Amino acid sequence: MSIFSRKSDTATAEPVFDAATTAVEDITGDYTIDASHSRIGFSARHAMVTTVRGAFKEFEGTARIDAANPAASSVSLTIRTASIDTGSADRDGHLVSADFFDAEKNPEITFRSTQVEKVDADTWAITGDLTIAGTTKAVTVAFDETGSAQDPFGNLRVGFEGSTAINRKDWGLTWNAALETGGVLVSEKIKLEFDVSAIKNA
């Protein structure tokens, strides 16, 4: 099994959702991310005991998919930094402050692919430049195809789910507070999560 695979090794695991559909065998084409049916999320450990989750509410992106020649594929994503939402106004205010993202000076988080590979029949590895708070570092995200569908409005949709882990200190997001019991208030490692629905351009 590929190291990029996110599928369960347990053959008896019950599926969480209905089975995926396949509207087309070849998903080659140019696509626009449907932000209203997609999610860009993240999770971090808080006080070493629990996981806090959040998401960015405003983003846009495009993708060129070439199934026959994956290296010719590309992805571009722009996120509005101030659209961060963790369910706590106070926490969100801290995250957009100069302690973290400094959203006033850095209004956008961007990702631009530099390499696309097909790992197996359903999995893609997308490497690119992730820019956060003015710092750019390369990251690789493993994406699984989750199906294709013709929606009631005549759109051809494709779905992908992916995730990766980063160390926020690599992007200069170093704020923290030490705990008396050891450890820190906010984990340095952050998990990024992508649930993408993209519509093929006419």
TrEMBL record:
Domain Lipid/polyisoprenoid-binding YceI-like: 30-199
Pfam family, one: YceI
Family, as annotated: Belongs to the UPF0312 family.
Protein name as catalogued: YceI family protein
UniProt organism field: Nocardioides deserti
Phylogenetic classification of the source organism: Bacteria, Bacillati, Actinomycetota, Actinomycetes, Propionibacteriales
